[in-house]
Amino acid sequence: MRDRFVPNAGLTRTHFDQRHRAARDAVLTSQRGRLIEAMVECVEAKGYHAITLTDIVARARVSRSTFYEHFTNKEQCFIEAVRTASDIMATRIVDELGQLPIDAGAHERIESIVVTFCETVASEPDFARLMLVEAFKVDQESVALRDLSVDRFADLYRAFYAEARVTDPSLPVIADELFALIPDAIGERTRRVIVADGAHRVPELAPLFVEFVNAVLGLPARTDA
Length: 225
Hints:
Elements: H1 10-28, H2 31-46, H3 53-60, H4 64-70, H5 74-97, H6 106-123, H7 125-132, H8 140-167, H9 176-196, H10 206-217
Helix pairs in contact: 2-3, 2-5, 2-7, 5-6, 5-7, 5-8, 6-7, 6-8, 6-10, 8-9, 9-10
């Protein structure tokens, strides 16, 4: 069973980081991965519009010719960095859901999604900022990738709520657009906290986010809480 989330529990976060470190390293230790990580770090340090190709290759410790073997230009590298951030988030959510008992209900699955999202933001602050803050400042393609990540959350909430209605048919039918509003709202609040206070503060919001999702979906309070 997955670790129970406790706000500000450093040990729990260490365990979370360790569980996902191998998968992260497998993506980012190649030359392409080092360039993507260099892009993320450069954006965090200087902002997208201020960085140059020289900045990226110097941080990645590769040549300009190696850069062009993988990317056409700086914009494409940025877009692929946003895609990587989205994939990191999605992979961790799927992995953490897989740690739940096979008979886990909607409450447990929703908590897993929300907690994993918050913990990933805190453990990957540069990637989180890139996807949730910087993507809006560059171009429409990077925004579209960010929106795709949000849609993944909506799909999960929709599926888990449908399962809950099978168990409890008294739960109301919910408009499809409402499922999309849930990750939009959580994403916006997360963006504001990242900008104002830093990504490390986001896990503190997990209990509030879980309560928000359950309230929007009209799920009854957990009897084992």
